[in-house]
Amino acid sequence: MKTRALLFAIAAVGFALPILTGCSTASGSAIRTGSLRLPPSARPIAVYATEIPSDARELGVVEAHAYGEEGAVENLLPVIVQKTAQLGGNGLVIDGVQADFHIAMRPQVETFSYPCGWRTFVSTRVYPVAEEIMIVTMHGRALLTGSGHP
Question: What pTM was estimated for this model as a whole?
Answer without folding.
Answer: 0.67
